[in-house]
Amino acid sequence: MHSDAAAVNFQLNSHLSTLANIHKIYHTLNKLNLTEDVAQDDHQTGTDDIVGPEGMEKFCEDIGVEPENVVMLVLAWKLDAQNMGYFTLQEWLKGMTSLQCDTTEKLRNSLDYLRSLLNEPTNFKLIYRYAFDFAREKDQRSLDINTAKCMLGLLLGKTWSLFPVFHQFLEQSKYKVINKDQWCNVLEFSRTINLDLSNYDEDGAWPVLLDEFVEWYKGKQMT
């Protein structure tokens, strides 16, 4: 951990080992009104400092939430983070400025606000779509099925009554990945289709994945 004096004089390209360092550095830069300059310099040099899984774990301890809590996904969306489990310094500074948080305490006090964003349909849809790109491997266009199930559980598990059955369907299905069209249509399905599937149009523009789920579920109910 750097002393306050060292933090004031730290080198912009030095690497940060924990999020605690970023807390102190951001607070110092904010007081010195240097955050914008740092972001620009970072962009120009291409040497973003990165907080990895260990730093993220420390951060979650600091704000009192579990890493798998959905509020962490909302925070990542607010920071426009590009890689799950990692924050760059530039993402952190931009996001914390947007949230007007320059201390851990202020961010902790913002958690209820971040959670509330999930209750607004437009924001939820944006967060849901963001989650697909955030969670996928960047060299892949689709999301592997295990990650997809976890993310769907995080986003829909408590609000979509059919989710447990859909999860069961995915467990026994042939699908190894889910593409973005399928991902987006699952949300639309969860919002518009009755629990008894009575308004599902098999001739509609739903992806085959959902046609197969409906067929499987109806067959399951008949047995």
Secondary structure layout:
Elements: H1 4-8, H2 19-32, H3 35-45, E1 50-51, H4 53-63, H5 70-79, E2 87-88, H6 89-99, H7 104-109, H8 111-116, H9 121-135, E3 143-144, H10 145-156, H11 163-172, E4 177-178, H12 180-192, H13 208-222
Antiparallel strand pairs: 1-2, 3-4
Helix pairs in contact: 3-6, 9-10, 9-12
Which properties best describe this structure?
single chain, 223 residues, mainly alpha, two-stranded antiparallel ribbon, disordered N terminus
Helix segment tally: 13
Q: Major beta sheet, specifics?
A: 2 strands, antiparallel
Helix content: 55-70%
Given as residue ranges, the uncertain stretches (5+ residues, pLDDT < 50) are: 1-21, 27-48
Identify the overall geometry: elongated
As laid out across the biggest beta sheet, the strand order is: 1-2
Strand content: under 5%
**Termini separation:** 62 Å
**Cα-based radius of gyration, to the nearest Å:** 21 Å
Number of strands: 4
Order of helices and strands: HHHEHHEHHHHEHHEHH
Structural class: mainly alpha
Mean pLDDT: 82
Describe what this molecule looks like in 3D.
- With 223 residues, the chain is mainly alpha-helical.
- Helix content is 62%, strand content 4%.
- The protein has helices spanning 4-8, 19-32, 35-45, 53-63, 70-79, 89-99, 104-109, 111-116, 121-135, 145-156, 163-172, 180-192, 208-222, and strands at 50-51, 87-88, 143-144, 177-178.
- A two-stranded antiparallel sheet has the order 1-2. Strands 3-4 form a two-stranded antiparallel ribbon.
- Helix 9 (121-135) runs antiparallel to helix 10 (145-156) and helix 9 runs antiparallel to helix 12.
- The termini are far apart.
